[in-house]
Fold:
Amino acid sequence: MVIIKSKDGSHTLFVPELNEHYHSTFGAIQESNFIFIEAGLHQLTQFNSFPCEEPLRILEIGFGTGLNALLTQIEAEKLGQPVYYTSIEAFPLPPETWSALNYPHQFCSLDYSSVFHHLHTAEWNKAEPVSSHFTLHKIHCTLEDFLPESNFFSLVYFDAFGPDVQPELWTQDIFQRVSDSMIPGGVLVTYSVKGIVVRALRSAGFRIEKLPGPPGKRHILRATKI
Structure:
């Protein structure tokens, strides 16, 4: 893998074999904040009046670089919102790769190195408190092998590699399994707006919204479980 500096100064990874980046080259942190924090987390905590005292159960499809987990941990502490964060990953990054990423140093004077380190070194397949409002449960498996609890998650970050690269992860069957794991009214956010993704989500019982995207991307998707 090759570390690339995106246009907002934060790193992303390029996988030559797949010809795919982990994040937008227009801005890795900018993209993740826009899609997963603003369109996802804030949609529940601010606009839907999600009860702050209850843990917000989030499922992330693809732990990857740990960027989404880091941004969510930062936001959970800022909001005082307890978060139980489940993330699945089939191919964890080696320490020499994730430790070279510059995410912990991109937040003005605040250094999140210890949090970022904890996110990556937390034991797999076991829930572990990372901070006062954030519990991480990393699961080492493929999406196809993941068997989530029914009616459990309120929010899903669907951040797998794109449907052109891994079409088997963007099917109606996969989205139906994800839907079954969500509470009614739960929200799924993703960067892909391809027709096959929209159709698969609708067939799995989601209401679709196309939202304006971050720089470099025209639209993103927010799907609500009917």
